[in-house]
Design a protein that fits this description.
Distance between the termini of chain B: 48 Å
Number of strands of chain A: 0
Oligomer: heterodimer
Number of helices of chain B: 9
Strand content of chain A: under 5%
Radius of gyration of chain A: 21 Å
CATH class of chain A: Mainly Alpha
Shape of chain A: globular
Radius of gyration of chain B: 18 Å
Helix content of chain B: 25-40%
Chain lengths: 234, 250
């Protein structure tokens, strides 16, 4: 630890823990976002008008409002409402309060889900109509069509967009630092910077942390892209 | 007297319109089992719509369509029953780009007919051999020429052992030098007893393949007869003009 603690004034360990929290929030919120995105895209592509309208309202509102505002709304209004609702429905005991990590993950996932909805919808619509014709002419069962024809092709179309949203998710994870209850990597850096007056060093360290996350993510995404797309190699 | 064998395809007063534009106008047509019918006509004549109505890819609005005696309704079981007997080859091939030629051919037998993977692949391979592509079974469509892709599509349709094969302008999307290999492949199926309905502008091919030629214009069947009759002694002015235009471009 001495190698870390000496140059960073004893903040090395805290910064590493902050980085771990940032990654946990990113991964969990992105997973939640994928669920929201899948549901949203399915609703947008549905034959039912009510589902399309509901999904349209979701993506429009979430994409219109600043993410910071949405996070604040989730913490100061949404979480309270959910807690009361859970108590009212008899699902939780009196005085129940949600774990802040869960609130953060669901709120951020809800935001990412709106963008993922649009990426997945566009990816499905990018599949040529002829694929549907061929599947129908061959009598492929609907689930086979979705799983074996639509999903793999949509994934190749969506991968770029999903990668972008993942990179944003890692940065959005730092939005929770404004809430004062999380010690994510950005929060630790700003506390350390304020306490030691070494602003340049600590903010540079925070920046470097995000840069490293991004570089590793990009390498993984590229690897994934190559694995998924043997068909486009000419 | 022997009873009339059941016709493969019957249209009785079939009409269909897109919005206010009629595309099929009171079409009545009987195609006997084993017939090889070529449909020609100017673009917008309703040829593709006609052929796509046979397996329910398009829905007709009026009249009755029967395929192998089964009346085509919107109901799932009727569509499933009919599509299991009708194979289709498309203008733009519509192969599944993320599957090899072999997988393209074996997915329907496996998932629709429930045939074991090994047997489905053996069937796929034998049909790929029939269209002269056994050596390319492991290639993805992107690594095949247009002509090869269309021959895979023919094999894919045949893997479901259809009684009727629909071909919707099978060579229109191909480079000129690849047209012949696909046409030869289709003509090679002539002796298999398959009932075929093919939309095409290739007149030499129509002569080789067809037992009957239909000329369509404005959603109606204008003339019907042997290729020799229609090509050599066209009755209607509309067909004479159409043939004149086609010949002028060759």
């Amino acid at each position: 630890m001495s190698l870390w603690e000496a140059p960073l004034g004893g903040y090395g360990m805290q910064l590493l823990l902050g980085l771990r929290l940032t990654l946990q929030v990113s991964l969990c919120s992105y997973t939640v976002g994928l669920v929201f995105g899948l549901l949203g895209a399915a609703a947008k592509l549905s034959h039912r008008r009510s589902l399309r309208l509901g999904a349209g309202l979701y993506t429009t509102l979430v994409r219109a409002l600043p993410e910071l505002l949405l996070v604040l709304l989730a913490f100061y209004i949404g979480a309270g409402l959910a807690e009361r609702l859970a108590v009212f429905a008899g699902l939780a005991p009196q005085g129940f309060s949600l774990n802040p990590f869960v609130v953060a993950v669901v709120a951020l996932g809800f935001i990412q889900g709106a963008y993922i909805t649009e990426v997945l919808r566009a990816a499905v619509l990018a599949i040529p109509r002829g694929q549907h014709d061929a599947a129908r002419a061959l009598n492929l069962p609907p689930l086979t069509y979705l799983g074996r024809i639509v999903a793999p092709q949509a994934l190749t179309h969506a991968l770029g967009g999903l990668g972008n949203i993942w990179l944003n998710a890692t940065k959005d994870a730092s939005l929770i630092s404004v809430l004062g209850i999380f010690s994510d990597v950005l929060k630790v850096s700003s506390l350390a910077a304020a306490a030691t007056k070494h602003y340049v060093i600590f903010y540079a360290v925070a920046g470097a942390a995000f840069l490293i996350i991004t570089l590793i993510s990009m390498a993984l995404l590229e690897w994934l892209r190559r694995r998924l797309m043997p068909l486009h190699v000419t | 007297m022997t009873p009339e064998p059941q016709p493969a395809i019957e249209f009785v007063s079939v009409s269909k319109s897109f919005g206010n534009t009629p595309v099929l106008n009171d079409v009545t047509l009987t195609i006997a089992t084993g017939e090889r019918v070529v449909v020609c006509g100017p673009s917008g004549a309703g040829k593709s719509t006609l052929i796509r109505c046979i397996n329910g890819l398009e829905h007709h609005q009026r009249g009755t369509i029967r395929v192998s005696g089964e009346t085509l309704t919107g109901a799932k079981h009727s569509l499933r029953h009919i599509r299991n007997q009708v194979g289709m080859v498309f203008q733009s091939f519509n192969l599944f780009p993320h599957m090899t030629a072999l997988e393209n051919c074996s997915i329907a037998p496996r998932t629709v007919l429930g045939i074991a993977r090994k047997d489905a692949e053996a069937r796929a391979l034998s049909l790929l051999r029939r269209v002269d592509l056994a050596g390319l079974a492991d290639r993805y469509p992107a690594h095949l020429s247009g002509g090869q892709q269309q021959r895979v599509a023919i094999a894919r349709a045949l893997c479901m052992q259809p009684r009727i094969l629909l071909l919707d302008e099978p060579t229109s999307a191909l480079d000129p030098e690849m047209v012949q290999e696909v046409l030869d492949t289709i003509v090679g199926l002539s002796d298999s007893g398959l009932t075929m309905v093919c939309v095409t502008h290739e007149m030499g091919f129509a002569r080789r393949l067809a037992t009957r030629l239909l000329f369509m214009d404005e959603g109606r069947i204008v003339e019907s007869g042997t290729p020799a009759d229609l090509f050599d002694t066209p009755q209607s002015q509309r067909l004479q003009r159409f043939l004149g235009q086609i010949r002028a471009t060759r």
